[in-house]
Amino acid sequence: MPKLKTSRTKKAPEGFESIQSLLEKFNNKLKAAETKSTASSSVKKNEILWEIYQIHHQRSRYIYDLYYKKEIILKPLYDWLLKNKYGDINLIAKWRKQGYENLCCLRCIQTKENNHGSTCICRVPKNDLLEEKKIQCITCGCRGCSSTD
């Protein structure tokens, strides 16, 4: 009978060691945010997930910047990071499109999940009225991710 392979994960490509420590810090922050106590009555129900969304965004933006802006990492490492879910493939794909360069999360552009079948309030360009009211996204806590801001 043939031998079964127990480990299906491939070894990380060259260059992963240089960014591994920062990615581990992001993972530790994410774990700490997930385990925070939700018993606090001062925090609204939807605000509990805001920190998780923000850390997820920062980690994906870090990978995006390394590959597209700074060009520090190579394509095999970039693909490996996305395949192993270090970054959000769909969010990074949106950042590459015009008008979505500063997108905070994918839920803010989904029209089915928002009132009146439109995008989230954080996608609306800021003007004097919005600046005075300090409007914040209900989903992720963003204060404005429109590309015109």
From TrEMBL:
It comes from the Eukaryota. It is found in: Nucleus. Keywords: Nucleus. PROSITE patterns: G10_1 (PS00997). InterPro entries: BUD31 (IPR001748), BUD31/G10-rel_CS (IPR018230). Pfam families: BUD31 (PF01125). One of its GO terms (biological process) is mRNA splicing, via spliceosome. Belongs to the BUD31 (G10) family. This is G10 protein. It comes from Babjeviella inositovora NRRL Y-12698.
